[in-house]
Structure formats: C-alpha cells, structure tokens
Specification:
Number of strands: 26
Shape: globular
Helix content: 10-25%
Largest sheet: 26 strands, antiparallel
Number of helices: 10
Radius of gyration: 29 Å
Distance between the termini: 65 Å
Structural class: alpha+beta
C-alpha cells in the first residue's frame, strides 16, 4: 500500500497536455484534482498546488483531514506531510517525482480495546511518467532502504520490517479498453515478529517469520482504471444519500461501464529461505510461492490458486520419532474454480436496484440469481498436484461440481513409495497405540488400489449424483435411498 500510495494519488490528475508552468496552470491542475478529492480538500488546505520552477508542486497535509469531521477521541493520527513534483513534458505526459510514502501513526480507542499502528519508510523515493491518455503511469520505479510497521494492542504486539527494496510498474493501453499493466517488487530481509497475549489467562505465544527476500510479481489486462476514477468522481460530487438516490441512473451507467473491472489479473508472492519459529517448533522452506489468477466479472470466468513449497523442514520436540520420515519436503498444489458466471448476475443487480426501495434489489431478482447459480454451479478443479519427500509421492487431480447441491466428483490419486510409508508406521506401531489403530485402515486403502506397470498405486474415485461412491470401479457406497413420496392428504 505504501508503495502504491503516490501512484494512486497522482492518477487522479489527468491534464490534457503539456503546458507552461504558471499560476493559471496551477489553478487548472487544482480544478482537475478537485474532481476526485473534492474542493473542500483545497479549501481546508489538505491539498495545495503551486508552480515550482519548471514543474508544479502538489502538497498533501493529511493531518488537516481531521478538520472535515466533528472532534472525537476514538481515532487519533499523525501523518507526515507529503509532496510530489510534476513536470509537464512535450509529448503531453508528466514526469512525477516524490517520496515513496509519508510516515505516520494511527491510534484507535474503543474501550476496552486500544490499538496503535505506526509505519516508517526510510529513504523512500519514486519517479515515473504519468500518461493522461491512460489515466495512469506508463512507467514508474521506486526504492527504499527499509520499511517498518508496528502494531500494538492488549492482545499483543507485532513488528514487521523489510530491508532495501525496489518496485517497478508499467502500463499500456489495452486492445479491448482499459489498461494492461505489469509490476515487480522485491524486498530483502523480511522479518515479522508477533507476540499474541491472552490477558485473562496470563499467557503469550511468540512467533517470528523471517525470509532472506520477498518478491511480488503481478500483471493484468483490460483493467478499467478510468471507469473506477469516474465512480470516484461521482462519489465526490454526490457526497450524501439524497444526491446518490437522485442520480442513481448515472451510478448505474458508471457501474455497467466498469464491468468486467478487468479481463485477467494474476500475481505471485515469493519467499526465499523462509522460516517460521514458534514455541512448538520451527518450519523452514528454501522457496515458497503463492500465486493467484483471477478473471474479471464475466461469463465462464475462473479463479485459481497455486501453492509451491520446496526444501521443507520441520523441527519440533513434539513430533514423534517416526514423523520426520513422512513429512513432505516438496508441495505443489494447484486448484481453481471455473465456470464462474458472474457477469449476468452483476448486470441484473445493477439494472434492478432502486435505492428508494427496501430492499434496493427486489427479492425476485436475488431469488432468480440464486436459482441460476444452483442450476449452473461453478466447477472446482484440482489440477495435477503433488506432495512428496525422498521416499514417497502422492499425485492428485480431479474435478467436482454440485448440480442441485449434490457433489459429483471424478478424481485420481497415484502413490509411489506407499509401502515404505506403511513400513515406517509398522515399525512405530509397537510403541504408539494411535499408529497401530491406523494400520488396518491403510491396509484397506491399499487393497482398493490398482498397481500400475511402474509399481505405483492408483485410486480412481468417482462420486455420483445419486450418492454412490466407486473406487477403481468397485462400489464402496451404494446410492442414497430415494425418499418415498408423501401420501396425498
């Protein structure tokens, strides 16, 4: 958020072309900004624009925001002043330079709870080229030597710090409207410590997460940034309930124009040399990554997640002696939801809502949307995923749908080294009653498996709409009883 703050602020300003830097130009820029932050922000001195040599200086005094609200003790804050220097270029774009983020703190008091959040950014700076035709940056870079965030509450204290880092962003006009963007952020020496306190029982649970580096890669296509800015301008102009109700036809038009919000976005968080230390043990992984891919609000959209961990280690006095041999050293999970038909429900709700009625969206519309969702539900897909260590590997893939609310599934599970895992448990069984109780179930599971030519075991699992379950073609659960019709009254 602190990296993107100046970018989001400057994106509000979209002058049409380069101009001579002078007083009238500053007034024009102020008028443009006021469309998105409101004229009151200038009247109260929250935002100021002035000529500064061959550029304009935009200054933000966040502490003056308090003057917009009645005095109250629940929220207190202090944010350092923040400024940007924007220079008009010959091609109609703007060179933008400034700090990466202001420092500050926020304190929320709601008895008996009191919370405090504080953040600092060291040596933070950003520079970029803002393109009015995009309403966003065509390119921008930023850097810092460190970031620190501290949270304090009766339930504990947390501190997160990052070492030196960089960020880069680029944007181009999308072929189908909107913006295509890419971004990359890398930060070194990530440390997060948390001490969770239970005052009633006088206990605490300290935890620390560390990584040599943290990265975030993201990209998207067709991001409707301009439409979102139009909705922000609408909110500034229609700043009370009566105005919104009176102009809801315009609001509907703006909401419809913003769909599908974006065509597709995806991002990946990556950690190197990640460790998590708690009183019950230490978890380590050489590389860890979490990826998210998401379509916009459209027909047959999808939402996908991927989790990849390698070089896993777990150390704990609470683990039994046999456990380390079975703990995975590598995890690769890939699952998604497909057939997400969100566009039609969204458009129906936009077209039918009336803020002068209660409820704003008629019950008949929400009931119809629910019925369509049940009749044509999304599909849960587990793409080929694997959990493995030196001796064993489990590979799983399959699909599940819920027609009329009943699960229907087709999945396959392949295992290599199954007998080695069982042998480890058999050796532990004489000294561990819980392990001994599990062995008969594992023997039954193996009995259902089918041996493949390479020695792996295969389980093909099928769940039918009638409730019956098959493993490798053998029924292990019959269909659910068909309810008898009630006799006529």
């Amino acid at each position: 958020m602190r990296v993107l703050l100046p970018i989001l602020i400057v994106a509000f300003a979209a002058p049409a072309a380069a101009q001579t830097v002078d007083g009238p130009g500053a007034t024009q820029l102020s008028d443009t900004l006021s469309r998105y932050v409101g004229k009151t922000a200038f009247e109260k001195g929250i935002v100021k624009v002035a000529a500064d040599g061959d550029a304009y200086r935009i200054d933000f005094d966040f502490n003056r925001i308090a003057s917009l609200f009645p005095p109250q003790d629940m929220v207190k804050y202090e944010v350092s002043s923040y400024g940007l220097r924007v220079k008009p270029l010959a091609d109609g774009t703007w060179q933008v330079d400034g700090a990466l983020s202001p420092d500050g703190w926020v304190e929320i008091s709601q008895p008996p709870m009191k919370q405090r959040f504080q953040w600092t950014v060291s040596d933070g700076k950003m520079s970029g080229v803002f393109d009015p035709t995009l309403g966003a940056f065509s390119s921008a870079t930023g850097s810092h030597s460190g970031i620190k965030l501290v949270t304090e509450a009766p339930t504990g204290r947390g501190e997160t710090s990052y070492g030196a880092g960089t960020v880069s962003i680029s944007g181009t006009k999308s072929a189908n409207g909107g913006i295509d963007f890419t971004s990359k952020q890398v930060m070194a020496d990530f440390v997060q410590s948390q001490n969770v306190v239970d005052p009633e029982n006088n206990t605490n649970f300290p935890m620390e997460m560390k990584a040599a580096s943290l990265s975030l890669d993201a990209n998207g296509t067709g991001y409707k940034w301009g439409s979102l800015l139009d909705m922000l301008a609408f909110a500034v102009t229609n700043n009370d309930e009566a105005k919104v109700k009176a102009n809801q036809a315009e609001l509907k038009s703006l909401l419809s124009a913003a769909l599908p919000l974006w065509e597709h976005v995806d991002g990946t968080y990556g950690f190197s040399d990640l460790s998590v230390t708690t009183p019950v043990g230490i978890f380590r992984t050489g590389k860890a990554g979490v990826s998210v891919a998401m379509d916009g609000i459209r027909q047959n959209g999808s939402l996908g997640y991927a989790i990849k961990l390698s070089e896993l280690e777990v150390a704990s006095f609470f683990l039994p002696a046999w456990a380390p041999a079975l703990i995975p050293t590598e995890v690769d999970l890939n699952f998604s939801g497909t057939n997400l038909n969100l566009e039609e429900p969204a458009r129906k709700m936009i077209e039918s809502f009336d803020l002068n009625q209660d409820p704003p969206v008629p019950v008949a519309v929400t009931d119809a949307i629910e019925a369509e969702f049940i009749a044509n539900p999304p599909k849960i897909v587990l793409a080929k995923s694997a959990i493995r260590n030196a001796d064993t590997e489990f590979v799983v893939e399959g699909e599940m749908v819920f027609p009329d609310g009943k699960p229907v599934m087709d999945a396959t599970i392949e295992a290599a080294g199954f007998d080695k895992a069982v042998a480890t448990l058999q050796a532990a069984a004489p000294n561990d009653q819980q392990v001994a109780e599990v062995l008969p179930a594992l023997a039954m599971v193996k009995g259902f498996g089918r041996a493949l030519p390479d020695g792996r075991l295969l389980w093909a699992v099928n769940v039918r709409a009638d409730g019956s379950v098959f493993v490798n073609g053998t029924m292990i659960k019959p269909a659910d009883p068909v309810p008898m019709p009630e006799p006529p009254q």
